Amino acid sequence: MSAPTTAEPAQSKEQSGTQFRCFGGCPGRHSVFEVLYTCPTCGGLLEVEHPLEPLRQRNPYKWQSLFDSRSSTTTWPYGSGVWGLREWVIPELRDENIVSMCEGNTNLFWADRLGQQLGVPDLWIKLCGNSHTGSFKDLGMTVLVSVVKQMMARGSSVRAVACASTGDTSAALAAYAAYAGIPAIIFLPAGKVSTAQLIQPVANGARVLALDTDFDGCMKIVQEVTADQSIYLANSMNSLRIEGQKTVGIEIIRQFDWEVPDWIVIPVGNLGNISALHKGFRLMMDLGLITRMPRLVAAQAQSANPFYRAFQAGFSNKVSVTAQDTLANAIRIGDPVSYQKAVLAIQESDGIVEQASEEELTEAAARADLTGMMCCPHTGVALAVLQKLIQRGEIQRHHRTVVISTAHGLKFTDFKVGYHQKTLQQIACRHANPPVYLPADASAVRDNIDQWLDGQAQRQS
């Protein structure tokens, strides 16, 4: 196979225009290549701003044709689902500084059998776990690490990148930093990350620090450590990651031939992912590619549900909680950083916030697995919330609905094994399917198979 060709020179030259601005409206703009995570005036969240007038020089049809033509190309860096949308991400990045492992362009899976069982035949699962490190976090990390690489090439004082994580963020940061040759430091809550998630940053050579605290405690420490600007903070309070993650929504629309689904259900913790979805849809509306937004559903684990509680109170105040243990450990977050952005996402999309118990999320994941999927517990949260909204009549049979699966189920083998061995505490494990141990005897094997097939036939009748 020949080496990939690079983008045309006009696309690789540095441009001006993309800047940080205060999400709360404070005056001033700041370079995206500056070490800056929050507004210097109010301390609030920043947002990457794309001037619309230059983007409007292409009409909607030309944007659609351009992005469609780049899908799965070998021309660097357009084979990436993120960098195929380069002009809408960080156009100022030079080709040689883009750190990409062909992330994105993940399968939009028609969940025909599961949809028929649930009564919503137009059900689709966006399999974001089919990515380099097994989660949607790759989409944001390709942008952040690429920006850091360009900063370092310009002589920045940044020496390393760091994040607090419950698993998937650390895996993505470690892999992309290793690919770029940038040192990475990972802060994990000790004993609260799956083995498969822990080994990823270890194998990629990151400095992994397991702290005796929860995610929110790790987040406080990493913010202190990165305060001197020599280590670059890679958590979702850094709005560069939103630029990559917003491409999920754009990609879904492109995969539906630029038609908008009725609902999108996504599991949420720190709230960066739903904020990113909304940002992508808002940009497409501003440029005339779509005329409406899908209704967004934020799905939370009941054990870590501050956003759900705030929604129930009409978003009158931000709610913070001490997150309790949950099998969906990646969203075990009690003080979400991207709260204000997520509130806007729900309000502008006429969205809903709902929660799922441990029993509900576990059984929903197992039920989906029986139709051919391999669900992580966080996808189980989204599927359980989907079932609730169907039962309430919110999501109806004729609605086109997308559930975003944020990570691959094989990253959570302990969760899967515990379910099928019925060792998960206080979970009924109704769909458990443990291995059957038999003697090496053909007659015993045939008898067991016959009994099993008879049982399968009775269940389907």
Summarize the structure.
The chain has 461 residues and is of the alpha/beta class. It has helices spanning 9-12, 52-55, 60-70, 112-118, 137-153, 168-180, 195-203, 215-225, 240-245, 247-255, 272-286, 306-312, 339-348, 358-369, 377-391, 413-420, 442-460; strands spanning 19-22, 29-31, 46-49, 108-110, 123-127, 160-164, 184-189, 207-211, 231-233, 263-267, 295-301, 352-356, 401-405. The chain has a domain at 108-134 and 241-420: Rossmann fold, CATH 3.40.50.
Strand content: 5-15%
Order of helices and strands: HEEEHHEHEHEHEHEHEHHEHEHHEHHEHH
Radius of gyration, in Å, reads 22 Å
Number of strands: 13
Mean pLDDT, to the nearest integer, reads 93
Count of DSSP H/I helices = 17
Q: Which structural class should the secondary elements be placed in?
A: alpha/beta
Largest sheet, strands/sense/barrel? 6 strands, mixed
Enter the CATH topology name of the domain at 108-134 and 241-420.
Rossmann fold
CATH arch. level architecture of the domain at 108-134 and 241-420 = 3-Layer(aba) Sandwich
Cα(first) to Cα(last) distance is: 51 Å
Please state how the strands of the largest beta sheet are arranged side by side: 4-5-13-10-11-12
CATH C-level class of the domain at 108-134 and 241-420: Alpha Beta
Poorly predicted tracts of residues: 8-15
Silhouette: globular
| Amount of helix | 25-40%
